[in-house]
């Protein structure tokens, strides 16, 4: 393994830098990143401490600093230390500036301001929390998206990921022998999506779940034949009602959510 020191310098939370580096590093094999995250960096004194750390652990420096003096200080220090220093947002900012015909305002952390989108996310998170795992079915009509699926098909984590994007999401489990809430079949506004997975994968996930709860008895919950029947019945239900189905077997929560958003947007573009 090749050890790589990454110094991520931001005048805000540093989430942008961490997301970009994560997406880039997965394309390289046998690399062990050591991240040094320097968030809320807004004074020259802070930069002095950061440059001392870079000197002790040389590596790639990536930054999102909008203040001109701060940028110049960091870049000058990195040149002296002979380490690469990359401004992640420069190409995007330059293109936007040229296209819009105006200079950027140069204010740090503006993406985290308490604007309308922020409050929409909070509202969506509160809604999703209240309507997780089939709770409060009378409020389903207020959802943007409703997820249905058998146990362990990532309904809850996908719901909360979507709500973080400002999308009110409810989820309802499909359980053998338990009727689904009648409100589900009367919905007009929400977009309903079925989540499924391979029976083998579900069986393994459920076994691990029971082990984490220190439950060792074999039950229908982990029986492969029973799970196959669950998955089959769930697919039939979604097909009957025209609900799109997404197989999450080899998808991360982020990938599943992205596919749901794509389908959701297509639905409304057709309505327009």
Structure description:
The chain is an alpha/beta fold and 272 residues long. The chain folds into 2 domains: 111 residues, 3-Layer(aba) Sandwich (Rossmann fold); 156 residues, Rossmann fold (3-Layer(aba) Sandwich), CATH 3.40.50. The chain is built from 9 helices and 8 strands. β3, α3 and β4 form a beta-alpha-beta unit. The longest helix is centred in the C-terminal third of the chain and has 19 residues. The radius of gyration is 24 Å and the shape is elongated.
Spatial order of the strands in the main sheet?
2-1-3-4
- CATH architecture label of the largest domain: 3-Layer(aba) Sandwich
What is the molecular shape? elongated
* Helical content (DSSP H or I, runs of 4+): 40-55%
Continuous helix count: 9
Number of domains: 2
Please compute the radius of gyration using only Cα atoms: 24 Å
Kindly report the CATH topology of the largest domain. Rossmann fold
Portion of residues in beta strands equals 15-25%
Helices and strands, in N-to-C order? Answer: EHEHEHEHHEHEEHHEH
User: How many strands in all?
Assistant: 8
Largest sheet: 4 strands, parallel
CATH first level of the largest domain: which class?
Alpha Beta
N- to C-terminal distance: 52 Å
Uncertain stretches: none
Structural class: alpha/beta
- In round numbers, the mean pLDDT is 91
């Amino acid at each position: 393994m090749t050890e790589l020191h990454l110094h991520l310098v931001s005048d805000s939370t540093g989430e942008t830098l961490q997301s970009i580096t994560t997406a880039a590093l997965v394309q390289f094999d046998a690399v062990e990143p050591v991240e040094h995250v320097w968030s809320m960096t807004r004074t020259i004194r802070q930069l002095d401490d950061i440059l001392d750390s870079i000197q002790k652990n040389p590596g790639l420096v990536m930054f999102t600093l909008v203040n001109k003096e701060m940028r110049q200080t960091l870049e000058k220090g990195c040149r002296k230390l002979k380490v690469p220093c990359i401004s992640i947002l420069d190409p995007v900012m330059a293109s936007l500036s040229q296209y819009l015909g105006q200079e950027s305002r140069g204010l740090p952390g503006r993406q985290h301001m308490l604007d309308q989108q922020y409050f929409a996310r909070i509202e969506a998170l509160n809604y999703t929390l209240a309507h997780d795992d089939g709770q409060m079915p009378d409020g389903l009509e207020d959802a943007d998206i409703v997820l249905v699926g058998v146990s362990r098909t990532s309904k809850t984590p996908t719901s909360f990921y979507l709500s973080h994007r400002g999308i009110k999401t409810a989820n309802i489990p499909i359980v053998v022998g338990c009727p689904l809430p009648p409100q589900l079949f009367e919905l007009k506004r929400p977009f309903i999506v079925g989540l499924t997975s391979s029976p083998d994968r579900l069986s393994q996930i459920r076994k691990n779940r029971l082990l984490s709860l220190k439950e060792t008895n074999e039950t229908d919950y982990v029986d492969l034949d029973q799970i196959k029947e669950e998955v089959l019945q769930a697919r039939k239900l979604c097909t009957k009602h025209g609900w799109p189905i997404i197989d999450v077997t080899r998808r991360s929560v982020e990938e599943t959510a992205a596919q749901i958003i794509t389908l959701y947007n297509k639905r409304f573009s057709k309505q327009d």
